[in-house]
Amino acid sequence: MDLRQTEDLYKKELFDNVLPFWLKNSPDNEYGGYFSCLERDGAVFDTDKFIWLQARQVWLFSMLYNKVEKRREWLDCAVLGGEFLKKYGHDGSYNWYFSLNRQGRPLIEPYNIFSYTFATMAFGQLSIATGKQEYADIALKTFENIIAKKDHPKGKWTKAYSGTRDLKNFALPMILCNLALEIEHLLDGAYLNEVMENCIHEVMDVFYRPELGGIIIENVGINGSLSDSFEGRLMNPGHSIEAMWFIMDLGKRLNRRELIDKAVKTTLTMIDYGWDKRYGGIFYYMDRKGYPPLQLEWDQKLWWVHIETLISLLKGYNLTGSEDCLRWFEKVHDYTWAHFRDSEYPEWYGYLNRQGEVLLSLKGGKWKGCFHVPRGMYQCWKTLEEINLKQQQA
Known about the structure:
The chain is mainly alpha-helical.
């Protein structure tokens, strides 16, 4: 594999294909915010607005403005979403709704903690892009709400009956690993270190299970115990692998090589665990004991799972020189580009069946928005750029 050509491939896909799709089809210039429910050709098929997708798009265009180039169209796009979220996205106390109608009226209560996490990311980056303290304050107030809710993230909207099978989920500590670095510029140094150490501990000491062969599971008991139940046996390989590049970034930030090495080893363990040996691609859900998973979509192949895996493998190769990471990257790259990329229209498919055939032709919906594909293109491009520069200087 020619890594220089591959670097150019990811960069070109980002700038010539993915970003123009969202800039053309997504902004709602009448009411503010973005349309995320987009057909294959970019036509809008539903106008509801989901807070975490709105926030992810604010973050994406703010981040590109901050880290790549000061393009006015990127900043304008970010501010369009940021102002809509500021005005309509929360209840006045920065409890963020799950969804709104097109005009900004709330549809679903603020039960989902990930509306909060992505709002924090969005306003953290937007504060850098604009220099506005107002946006920094929104990020900080929302982050304080997240920390206050982290032990009971759904609050009064939880469906679980308390005291019978109390479980905690992997997703929040995983996201906090990334979020801590996203808002590093807003946090006191000692507090930032405390947040980083806590989320590293949760991910790598609680949900990572050496007694199960070094896999990561999605739910454990409140005390960290294993649960022999549908939830307690649940595996989401893509989640685990995505978390590992967050851990690698933290390992790099903290200069902890042992943490990076453990994250790389876990990435390789999880991709081997989750890879469909018959049809290729990575399973969405699995049961750690091999029982039938509860989720009927368990064998689907999802865009974000494969794109996040590409990021982790490239970062692993860049940070450690692992040839296993490079071999797996080539294999996952070939599968991902062959099956998820739409050769006729911009942006990528999100949902394939087990055989790798397109299940839904949409380019955006309730769960897929302007995030994993462009972030993945950016991360792969920049990591390959670093790898190629090192090789050139060697």
